[in-house]
Amino acid sequence: MNNQNIEKMILTGLMAALVAVMTVAVAIPVPFTNGYIHPGDSMVFLSALILGWKRGAVAAGIGSAFADLFLGYVYWAPWTLVIKACMALAVGLIVEKCAGKTRRVVVACIALVVLWILFNAAVGGIMLYEAGHNAAALQEALREDVESVTALGVLLNRVQRQLMAAALLIPVALLAVTFFLRKAENIIVPLVQIIGMTGGGILMVFGYYVGGGLIYGSFAVAALSVPANIVQFVGGFLIASLLTAALKKTPIKKYFDRH
Q: Which of 38, 56, 25, 44 is nearest to 231 (CA)?
């Protein structure tokens, strides 16, 4: 085994540890699906940007799954292993395939915006259907968090408004952040990396929505955690963007430039 492979193995283990530590350090419980949000996604993003999509996926998946096990979310660990690995894989692949290719960047942007809007519309539609046809069963599933069908209706309306706002504001906010990062003299994050992190974040939100729906037997219940996962994704995106800009002024810059 040559020195380069040893270096990659050490970096992969280090990033897996950082993913786990950042996830465990600030874990905020989320009601309804018994999950939690955390700043660990910032390290998932960095894993992909520093290690590339293959090793980045390994570090992100293993580090996140160990965090679930450590915090007692054992039933989520297998899902997290796959979701976070795919999240890092998406980031790395988008960066690798779109770097220096303007047409691919444009296509990726349009595809992500369309998928994001369609996802939020589909989730909103599922919630409306369940509220209209299975309100009693849905309230029973949430009996620990919702006292009555009336309270359920208020909750669903609030979440729907949040989803509508996210569908509209997230693309706008990311474009604004992109503009700021591109124009600021002391902050430089390539557009392709911003797009990659956005794609990975969207995949994460979708993955946990599907996982929650299958685990709890209700995609309407799973939808209630989507706003929290959006907050987690955006927070991780912002932290990773600032860290990337800072690290690119150090010798670590060479790892970003490999991909």
A: 38
Give backbone dihedrals phi and psi of 33, rounded to 5 degrees, phi first. Answer: -110, 5
User: What span, in angstroms and rounded, lies between the C-alpha atoms of 229 and 224?
Assistant: 10
Element (H, E) at 30: strand 28-30
For the chain, what is the domain count? Answer: 1
Alpha helices in 72-141 (DSSP H): 77-98, 102-133, 135-141
User: Domain range spanning residue 70?
Assistant: 3-257
Residue-wise pLDDT for 22-78, tens only, equals 999 988 887 666 778 889 999 999 999 999 999 999 999 999 999 999 999 999 999
Tokens 């309270």, residue? 151
Find out whether 62 and 15 touch, Cβ atoms under 8 Å: no
Q: Which among 37, 32, 231, 35 has a CA at the least distance from the CA of 151?
A: 32
Task: Identify the DSSP state of 40.
Answer: T
DSSP assigned state of 76: G
Q: CA-CA distance, 59 to 43, in Å (whole number)? A: 9
Convert the pLDDT of each residue in 94-134 to its tens digit.
999 998 888 888 888 888 888 888 888 888 888 777 776 76
The per-residue DSSP string of 193-246 comes to: HHHHHHHHHHHHHHHHHHHHHHHHT-HHHHHTTHHHHHHHHHHHHHHHHHHHHH
Going by C-alpha positions, the residue among 70, 73, 56 that lies closest to residue 8 is 56
17-43 b/e (C-beta count within 10 Å ≥ 16 → b) = ebbbebbbeebeebebbebbbbbbbbb
**Strand (E) or helix (H) holding 37:** strand 35-37
Q: How many helices and strands in the chain, by DSSP H and E?
A: 10, 2
